[in-house]
Write a structure and sequence with these properties.
Layout lengths: L16 E9 L6 H14 L4 E5 L7 H4 L18 E3 L2 E5 L17 H11 L6 E7 L6 H9 L5 E6 L1 H5 L2 H11 L4 E6 L4 E2 L6 E2 L6 H9 L3 E4 L4 H8 L4 H4 L4 H17 L4
The structure holds adenosine-5'-diphosphate.
The site of adenosine-5'-diphosphate (ADP) has 19 residues, from α1 and α8.
Length: 270
């Protein structure tokens, strides 16, 4: 990623992945990590070698979403860190550093960014087709620093909810990406409508169509909608990603279709 002087802000090596997708949101609690985890698992289920990097310092939820809480990083050679594994997906989270012998001072100020830098440079990722980065929420200092640290990003997915759209947080996220020359691969509207489990009727709790209208208004692709779904809460709470454990359910199939569209865009075919 170049700054306005045409130079990289940090001396970074090349990306461990052919394609790197950042998952962003205008604020916390919209399902960004849920989307990032299921996106990464879905991509790895499609046969790609994939990595998932959780950089959300204040709420690293990827370990919980994948049932990997309590994992600690190990190094076999004393230099490189071994990523944890969920099936064939390689996973690193800031949470894996907590409770280790690492001095807690690393969590202050710029040292946090050293940890992220290390996660790119000193982890034994192998050759990845895809790296998914779950970024801190919002458009402030922390996501900005993380995005600037990501080597050779392909683009971003912005996760939002219908009511958030009304507050134009997504517009801010799109502007954030534009300021950083980061292509927006697509917007996903999460918690969009509730489908009654008994009769199948859809209720739009927070309005509908806002995501699509906003995306087309700003000239960015709209990938699709995920309904409010009690089984998504359960899937997150029990560490069983829905793209694997509930893959036959309609919302999971729709999500899979979004991932396929996204992969086509990332591969330059969309
Ligand atoms: P963020 O990363 O944006 O802070 P999370 O992915 O941690 O958000 O999700 C916040 C909460 O919302 C979690 O409890 C998660 O299970 C729940 N959640 C996410 N998406 C949905 C959905 N479509 N339907 C119901 N609950 C959801």
């Amino acid at each position: 990623m170049m700054n306005e002087n045409g130079t990289k802000p940090y001396g970074l090596d090349e990306s461990p992945a052919k394609k790197t997708i950042l998952v962003l949101s205008g604020k916390g609690g919209v399902g960004k990590s849920t989307v990032a985890a299921n996106l990464a698992v879905s991509i790895s289920l499609q046969g790609y070698s994939a990595g998932l990097l959780d950089t959300d310092f204040h709420g690293p939820s990827i370990p919980k979403l994948l049932g990997m809480e309590g994992t600690r990083l190990v190094s076999n050679d004393g230099k490189t860190l071994e990523p944890a594994e969920f099936g064939s997906l390689k996973v690193i989270s800031v949470d894996f550093m907590l409770g280790s012998r690492t001095d807690p001072v690393i969590w202050r100020g710029p040292m946090k960014m050293n940890v992220i830098r290390q996660f790119f440079q000193d982890v034994n990722w192998g050759d990845l087709d895809y790296m998914i980065v779950d970024c801190p929420p919002g458009t402030g200092d922390e996501p900005l620093s993380v995005v600037q640290l990501v080597p050779e990003p392909t683009g971003a997915v912005i996760v939002t909810t219908p009511q958030e759209l009304a507050l134009s947080d997504v517009r801010r996220s799109v502007s954030f990406c534009r300021a950083l020359n980061l292509p927006v691969l697509g917007v996903i509207e999460n918690m969009s409508g509730f489908v009654c489990p008994h009769c199948g009727e859809r209720t739009e709790l927070f309005g509908s169509g806002g995501g699509e209208a906003m995306a087309s208004g700003m000239g960015v692709p709209f990938l699709g909608r995920i309904p409010i779904e009690p089984s998504i809460v359960e899937s997150g709470d029990t560490g069983k990603p829905f793209v694997y454990h509930q893959s036959k359910l309609p919302f999971a199939r729709e999500f899979e279709a979004m991932v396929k569209t996204l992969v086509e865009k990332a591969e330059g075919k969309g």
